[in-house]
Specification:
The complex is a heterodimer of chains A (321) and B (274). By secondary structure, chain A is mainly alpha-helical. Chain A has helices spanning 2-16, 30-65, 82-87, 91-123, 128-136, 143-154, 160-167, 183-209, 213-221, 226-237, 239-254, 258-263, 275-284, 289-320; strands at 68-69, 77-78. Chain A has two domains: 2-65, no CATH class; 85-320, Orthogonal Bundle (MetI-like fold), CATH 1.10.3720.10. Chain A has a two-stranded antiparallel ribbon. In chain A, a hairpin with a 7-residue loop joins strand 1 (68-69) and strand 2 (77-78). In chain A, helix 4 (91-123) packs antiparallel against helix 11 (239-254) and helix 13 (275-284) runs antiparallel to helix 14. Chain B is an all-alpha fold and 274 residues long. Chain B has helices spanning 2-23, 27-32, 45-54, 59-90, 96-104, 112-125, 131-154, 159-167, 172-183, 185-201, 204-209, 218-226, 229-232, 234-269. The radius of gyration of chain B is 23 Å and the shape is globular. Chain B starts with a helix and ends in a 5-residue tail after the last helix. Classes of the chains: A mainly alpha (321), B mainly alpha (274).
């Protein structure tokens, strides 16, 4: 866009110079006309430059770097798809992929299902506003601080959970919550659900409020019980928002980083990494930038696949209507 | 059923309660308490712990830096996005939809796609570990979503207002500044709240693009302090977590309604792309 605007402006100045003394309506002069034509591009210049330099160029460069071997000091060397081929035999990558699947499944089961159930209960509750505020409160806390808080609860030596279990005589139930794989991943999923449940409930509540009362009342007069009303009336009508919530939670759980970074840093021995943590460690701890870039690419392809699936689900619904 | 929800809501507050109570203890007090549930001997110890946290591991400097980044970058992003949105909705620009899609495509990639080239770019240009570098990046990352919201909002402002102002001799920029912007204060406020919170809570880019106290934002500072958890003592670390959480919690308690509205906006706009 800048290249689009600048030549025009330069031409405009040359053309305007000999006429500079004329008193005429600005728009009627060549300078004024061309400046007026260029002006709209100046408005978009800052945003296009910032996004181009700091987001789009890096994203394109990562695609290229994933085909190279690069330690950050010598120039990158092109190695084709070797990084990708190496991923499938790399135990760290395999563990991280498995953990990412755990994260997706855990968040789906706990956050999405529980969120839906609570939203249905809250929808008719007189205290809904208060409950919404309470359950949403952890969502205002950064992932890093969430990790710190739950580390204080889960850590082995002087964590609050183990201390409490011992104190009430359940010492046999104490666990190394953050150092035993895959238990450490499940512990961290609990922390993530504590943070993410509120937003899920809010989104489902927005959906529930758009559902007309008539079909529900009709089903009730026909003698349907609460579960049947939910299963055969509410749930199908809630489908559009369910698709959105499932999509958001799915994609966010693919990319979880902050909570893990402050709870286990992916350890011990890289046992609790997800793909996002593996990408970070390979790049900024091991300085294998090309390899890290290929992990970023895998993450992107998986995320895009989910997004395409999810957009298609929305469009299929629109066609049905 | 309602009782069940009530129990869950109480359970949801328990971790926060434990954090606050623990942050009010001294370190020896914490280690001598077998259950970790007893009340603090002196709740005012909280202020001593927060003060200690402020001077540990660059937390205080990080607090000030994050405040700067949150306010300036969110403000700049909204300004640049509004200028762009004005151009693509109201000015004679070619391919308005192209410019919109170009900038909005900045939301489709996972953040991991940006990290390596940014790190290299920042080292090569001297932006690495500078406040300017942090502000530029946070402005860029906040821009696409701001553009999405402002473009949508500007489209709802009646054209008649603009035409009336033009007849009164208002320039394009005058219309933007005197009419369009003042009418848009609501989405601007929601966006500011949302982007400030996002920048304040960011960990990943703070870790990659900065390292020294005074530049490093508060979340990477907190993560660094967490590394010495047993050394500094849980009360100090949790006091630091409270310090790092304070601004966003205060904003939520004051303006929670707008935050939740911002969430539904995000769901519509980003469709969870980041």
């Amino acid at each position: 866009m800048a290249s689009d605007a600048k030549p025009r402006k330069a031409k405009a100045r040359k053309a305007a110079a000999p006429e500079g003394t004329e008193v005429a309506a600005e728009a009627s002069r060549p300078f004024g006309r061309l400046a007026a034509a260029a002006a709209p591009y100046l408005y978009v210049t800052p945003m296009v430059l910032l996004v181009g330099v700091f987001l789009l160029y890096p994203a394109a460069d990562t695609m290229w770097l994933s085909l190279t071997k690069w330690n950050g000091i010598y120039p990158p060397t092109f190695i084709g798809f070797d990084n990708y081929l190496n991923l499938w035999t790399d135990p760290v990558f395999i563990t991280a992929s498995l953990n990412t699947v755990y994260w997706v499944a855990g968040v789906m089961l706990l956050q999405t299902a529980l969120g839906l159930a609570l939203a249905v209960l809250l929808n008719t509750s007189p205290l809904a506003e208060l409950y919404k505020r309470i359950l949403y409160l952890p969502a205002a806390i950064s992932g890093a601080a969430i990790g710190v808080i739950w580390y204080a609860i889960f850590n082995n030596q002087f964590g609050i959970l183990n201390a409490s279990l011992r104190f009430v005589g359940l010492g046999a139930l104490t666990q190394a919550w953050l150092t035993t794989p895959p238990l450490n991943t499940f512990s961290m999923i609990v922390a993530a659900v504590w943070q993410g449940l509120g937003p899920t409930i809010i989104l489902f509540l927005v959906g529930l409020q758009t559902i007309p009362r008539d079909p529900i009342e009709a089903a009730q007069t026909d003698g349907a019980n609460a579960w049947q009303v939910f299963r055969y009336v509410t749930l199908p009508l809630l489908r559009p928002i369910t698709v959105v919530v499932v999509g958001i939670n799915l994609i966010n759980s693919f990319k979880v980083f902050d909570i893990i970074w402050t709870m286990t840093q992916g350890g011990p021995y890289r046992s609790s990494e997800t793909l996002a943590v593996t990408m970070f460690r390979d790049s900024f701890v091991s300085f294998e930038f090309g390899y890290g870039a290929s992990v970023a690419m895998v993450l992107t392809v998986v995320t895009f696949a989910v997004a395409v699936f999810y957009i298609r689900a929305i469009f299929r619904r629109l066609e049905v209507q | 059923m309602t009782v069940l929800v009530g129990i869950l809501a109480v359970a949801w507050l328990v971790p926060l309660w434990l954090v606050v109570v623990t942050a009010m203890k001294t370190s020896p007090e914490y280690f001598h308490d077998a259950s970790q549930w007893s009340l603090p001997e002196n709740p005012l110890q909280l202020f001593a712990n927060v003060r200690d946290a402020w001077f540990t591991s660059g937390m205080g400097a990080g607090f000030m830096a994050s405040l700067l980044y949150g306010v300036v970058a969110a403000g700049l992003a909204i300004l640049f996005a509004s200028l762009g949105a004005y151009s693509v909705t109201r000015l004679r620009i070619r391919w308005p939809f192209f410019w919109f899609v170009l900038v909005f495509s900045g939301t489709i990639f996972p953040f991991q796609m940006y990290l390596i080239p940014l790190f290299k770019l920042y080292q090569d240009t001297g932006l690495y570990d500078t406040q300017l570098g942090m502000i530029l990046f946070y402005t860029a990352i906040a821009l696409p979503f701001c553009l999405f919201v402002m473009r949508g909002y500007f489209a709802t402002i009646p054209l008649e207002l603009q035409e009336a102002a033009r007849i009164d001799g208002c320039s394009d920029f005058g219309i933007f500044r005197r009419i369009i912007l003042p009418l848009s204060w609501r989405p601007i406020a929601v966006l500011f709240l949302f982007q400030f919170t996002w920048i304040w809570n960011d960990l990943l880019f703070g870790l990659v693009l900065s390292t020294s106290d005074g530049v490093r934002p508060i979340t990477p500072s907190l993560a660094g302090l967490q590394g010495q958890f047993s050394h500094s003592g849980p009360p100090l670390v949790l006091a630091a977590a409270l310090l790092a959480t304070l601004p966003t919690i205060v904003l939520f308690l004051l303006l929670g309604r707008y935050m939740m509205r911002g969430l539904t906006l995000t769901a519509a706009g980003r469709a969870g792309s980041d």
